[in-house]
Amino acid sequence: MPIFRKSQNTPDGVDPGRLPRHIAIIMDGNGRWAQKRGLPRTAGHAAGAETFRTIANYCKEIGIEYLTVYAFSTENWRRPPEEVGAIMRLLGRYLDEALEDMERNRIRIVFFGDLEPLTPELRALCDRAHSASMRYSEAQANICLNYGGRDEITRAVRALARECAAGERDPESITEADISARLYSAGVPDPDLIIRPSGEIRTSNFLLWQSAYSEYYFTDVLWPDFSKEELNRAIASYQARSRRFGGV
Ligand code: IPE
Ligand code: IPE
Ligand code: MG
Among this protein's residues, is 76 annotated catalytic? Predict the structure, then answer.
């Protein structure tokens, strides 16, 4: 688990003592960003990958321990095969570059999602990026790839059902913690702040279980245009809220 280290690089307007430990982002709006410029949608995905690089490094710089990003959902396979193929190729290129830059960025990379349907080449890259970055403990980036909140919960339920069927546990003994421990995010604290750019006001199957008490921040900015300043605004908005978790 990353060790919390207070950063010297806190931006103006952000209280360094009350930073969210975990920020999650639905990286949406790549296609519209490209269409607005008369470019193919894939150009938007390429620009979005650059934004991810910038924001992931910035989060580490200011002292955010965990960043979780939604890169490809279980529903995104519904897109035209050309677009899916282009997204997968871009991911491969991104991971190649991340492997080269690893020592400079020093961010632990973890994947949330079912990597089974990916090509063996892409899966191998994911494995390499994960194992090569395991030694970094300051900041962790969770990349949600072929991820769906419902799929994640379904898998946890299946795992528990198997244990019950094998007589290893009593169904009555199942707790919320048992479910959390069987999600991709096992061991990672729930996101404090979830950001969705692009103007859509929905979760689109992102971190359904983990978001029970997350604070949301929605902005019309399209993901490729998302900046460090916009992240600072999201954090400042988060810090102005009162989190009650059902209490008073
Ligand atoms: C998010 O951008 C990237 C993925 C879902 C892979 P979109 O491609 O959804 O962009 P819009 O929403 O069409 O603008
Ligand atoms: C959510 O965006 C998934 C990712 C950003 C990876 P979508 O563009 O797929 O969501 P909808 O279809 O607008 O709900
Ligand atoms: Mg979208």
Answer: yes
Nearest to 43 by CA among 28, 30, 26, 53: 30
- Output the residue whose Cα is nearest ligand 1's atom 1: 28
Separation CA 244–CA 234 (nearest Å): 19
Cα–Cα distance measured from residue 123 to residue 48, given in angstroms and rounded to the nearest whole number:
21
pLDDT on residue 8: 60
Question: Counting ligands in written order, which one lies closest to the CA of residue 91?
Answer: 1
Ligand nearest to C-alpha 75: 2
CA–CA–CA angle 170, 175, 176 (5° rounding): 150
Q: How far is CA 113 from CA 24, 30, 92, 224, 246, in A?
A: 15, 21, 16, 23, 30
- Of the pLDDT bands very low, low, confident and very high (cuts 50, 70, 90), residue 208 is very high
pTM above 0.90, yes or no: yes
- With H, G, I as helix, E, B as strand and everything else as coil, classify residue 22: strand
Three-state DSSP string of 137-152: CCCEEEEEEEECHHHH
Atom of ligand 2 nearest to the CA of 76: 9
pLDDT tens column, 34-83: 999 999 999 999 999 999 999 999 999 999 999 999 999 999 999 999 99
Structure tokens at 142: 């969770």
- Alpha carbons within 13 angstroms on the beta-carbon side of residue 108 total 15
**Ligand 2 atom showing the smallest separation from residue 28 Cα:** 5
Catalytic, 12? Answer: no
